[in-house]
Amino acid sequence: HLFSVTCCKMSKKHTADNSRRELSESIWDCTILSLGSILIVALAVFFAQISSLFSTLQYPSRPLSSAIDIRGVNRLIVGEDPKILGRAVAEFVDRNEPFVCRSCIEAKKLEFWNRDENLGEVVSNDTAAVSIRISQSKDSGKAIFARKSDISPNSEESVYSEQKMSFHDFLRVYDQPLENDIHYYGAQINVVESLPSLMPKIKASAPSAAILNAVGPTPSAKHRPLTLYIGKGPLTTQTHYDSLENLVCVVAGGTKTFDLYDPASSSLWLYVDRPKHGNASPVTTDNNNFPLSKFAIPSTATLHPGDCLYVPVYWYHSVLTSAHRTISINWWKRPDHHKMSVLEKLFCGREGELSRAKC
Questions:
Q1: pLDDT single digits (tens) 173-193
Q2: Which of 42, 214, 301, 333 sits CB 3.0–4.6 Å from 89 for a disulfide?
Q3: What is the Cα–Cα distance from 60 to 155, expressed in whole angstroms?
């Protein structure tokens, strides 16, 4: 447009002052300038479209199922085709690498979990007692759910006790104002055994079958293939690893933040001692007793309702639940035997002297 205005002014000046030939040359110059400006605009639009297309292919805006590598490098589980989705998840599982699936469960599927009244009504016929963890928050402002045997002698961190109660009784007390800073936490509740009436609701709220199947086969009932976690924080769990593949999804409430440590760094810096601590690490927020733990740099992921996280076997992790009422569901899967064998050798230093773990 600027070139066109300039040309118009030039034409008027030449009309008044110059010969017909000079006017013709002026018009020709204007034409060239106008065509040049059009070409520049066209090229700018073309490159803008290419840039937009490249960004879409590399970083789409929250597709149906997108995975973000925990360390911040965007990864993508593309498309709605179950075969493509399954292959993408299988690659993460094969590499034993965590991924976050944002908006993995549609919001309309989560409405049931927003009210305790809905849970109480559905499980009204489930009379089996569930094991509830009880802990008291300390100066840190959060309750620490750690086993007493795994707390260092000089630590001020809290530990938890366990109490059997009906799920209905738990629903009445866990979300009430805290007395003496006591927290009630329903953790690892075996849904199949204790709350079977919830199974249809969990099935209706599950992420894509392509994702679940790609993580691994479902283990036998004795391994608790489906567990429920419900509590009101802030509260945190002890750093530990699991011997099963785990897909954890937040279905209601606030957030859950996971700090994850890969098997190699865990074996070096988290003071692993299986004979003494089992699958847990004694490292707590009081790190004075564990000076090497500062070298264990976690990968962090925060889950909101509808988000799911794949926690691979042998990845140590701790979980911080926000102050809001929060519910999550864990789908446990059987790991590949060959992968477990390789990881065991790496973890316990049988392929060299890199590991400090006591196995």
A1: 998 766 667 889 999 999 999
A2: 214
A3: 46
